[in-house]
């Protein structure tokens, strides 16, 4: 079996991980796996059932009733299939994002999803982004990147996304949500967000998308070639 290569991109909410990883994957011909979407799907499932993301007993009781499938369309976009339903758009609300951060703190959830993520990396050249890819999911990834940006910059980016979708929100409210996500992600007991010792840190606060993609592409070429 031919060797597969893996690129792990970690960082806080709003650092641009998904957009950058998706663009880079398309350029390199790699599979892209948005692991945050997987946890959002779990959170959405529990939300439908009325189970609080903090209710570990409830989450543990119903997690086995959830089936998640990842599909890619002709353009390479990732679709999340929850018990046979495409919930790709449904999981993208700010509320589900907050609940995903909480539900992902449960070891039972991470254990269920860990093999799913690793299986993709075993079968394909992959770029995977999340909070604990380099530290837990793919500790032997060929390239590890830690993307970050100031909370204010990330809040502005989120505001632009909401504006593009025709949604309204106050900057202070979005900033507070991002700061809350940061705290939750870095202080959870299970697989907290942290930069690995062998990760390369990129602060994207003053960088364009194209500049970040180019920077990571150069790092990838230096480490594993084309």
Explain what this protein looks like in three dimensions:
The chain is α/β, with parallel strands linked by helices and 226 residues long. The chain is built from nine helices and eight strands. The strands form two sheets. The protein has a five-stranded parallel beta sheet, sandwiched between helices. Strands 3-4-5 form a three-stranded antiparallel beta sheet, covered by helices on one side. A hairpin with a 5-residue loop joins strand 3 and strand 4. Helix 2 crosses helix 4 (94-103) and helix 7 crosses helix 8 (171-187). It starts with 5 loop residues before the first strand and ends with a helix. The model has no long low-confidence stretch (mean pLDDT 91).
Beta-strand share of residues: 15-25%
Uncertain runs are none
How many H/I helical runs? 9
Tell me which oligomeric state these chains represent: single chain
Q: Please state the average pLDDT score.
A: 91
Q: Radius of gyration from the CA trace?
A: 17 Å
């Amino acid at each position: 079996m031919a060797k597969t290569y893996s690129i792990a991109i970690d960082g806080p909410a709003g650092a641009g991980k998904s957009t950058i990883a998706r663009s880079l994957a398309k350029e390199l011909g790699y599979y892209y796996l948005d692991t945050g979407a997987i946890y959002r799907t779990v959170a959405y499932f529990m939300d439908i059932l009325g189970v609080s993301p903090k209710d570990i007993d409830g989450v543990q009781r119903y997690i086995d009733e959830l089936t998640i499938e990842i599909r890619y369309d002709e353009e390479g976009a990732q679709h999340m299939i929850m018990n046979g339903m495409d919930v790709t758009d449904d999981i993208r609300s700010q509320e589900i994002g907050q609940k995903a951060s909480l539900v992902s703190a449960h070891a039972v959830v991470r254990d269920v999803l860990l093999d799913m993520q690793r299986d993709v990396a075993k079968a394909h050249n992959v770029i995977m982004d999340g909070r604990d890819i380099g530290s837990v999911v793919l500790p032997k990834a060929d390239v590890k990147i830690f993307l970050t940006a100031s909370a204010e910059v990330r809040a502005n980016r989120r505001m632009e996304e909401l504006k593009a979708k025709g949604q309204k929100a106050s900057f202070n409210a979005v900033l507070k949500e991002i700061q809350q996500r940061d705290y939750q992600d870095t202080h959870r007991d299970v697989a907290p967000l942290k930069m690995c010792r062998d990760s390369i840190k990129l602060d994207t606060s003053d960088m364009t998308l194209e500049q970040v993609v180019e920077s990571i592409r150069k790092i990838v070429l230096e480490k594993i070639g084309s």
